[in-house]
Amino acid sequence: MTALVATETVVLVLLALLVVGLLRSHAEILRTLHDLGVGPDAELDLTAASASASTYAPAGGDGTPPDRARVAFDVQGVTPSGDAVVVGVHGAPRQVLLAFLSSGCTTCQTFWDALRDGAARHLPGDLRVVVVAAGDDRESASAIAERAPTDVPVVMSSQAWHDYDVPGSPYFVHVDGPSGRIVGDGTARTWPQLVGLVEDALGDRAERDRRIRADRDERTARRRRGGAAREARADAALAAAGIRPGDPSLYGPVADPPDRPVDA
To answer: For residue 75, what are the β-bridge partners?
Structure first.
């Protein structure tokens, strides 16, 4: 028993040392990323290979990894003019495209221009576009107001950037409002490229929904076929025993009616 306790103690100590080492390594990675300028204020490098420059990863829904099935958050902040505002995202009646843009990002200017030209009205899937800039702790309200479109909500909220783990700008988060789940997120170089990615995401989601319905219908059909087969086997067994439809034995004994009271 003493040897067993000693062995367990050694194992626990080794595990503790391993965890400490992992935490220290994680902290070093975070510090290195910070020194390289990676963070909410950093502009995403869209000049790299196309695989990293235009990504729109599916998240949530059946058939996708559980760690990507994230829940959406409502966006709370202020307008560029300083008015408090809350944009309902979780439980919204339609799909929402959150566009995380900044005033100092050169690539973002493409999307600012497209939104001011009314591009949001031509997105597939009846998406509602909401522009989310960082709060006035990191962003100029006047610069955002200068770029803001007139027909698209613009919210300044550093908390939203934190809630959605935004690595830089431009960045887009596609939310299915009724379910409150994130359909996909990522970045793109241009507005047409973003539209293409959204269309692909909607098409993939529609195909998943079709497969789910087909699987559900097939399970229902199998249950019905199984019920019919059981009924046929029961009829065959009754027929082999000489019991036909309408046989009195199928209904059990008939109780005698109660005696009527005798009139005095």
So the answer is: 87
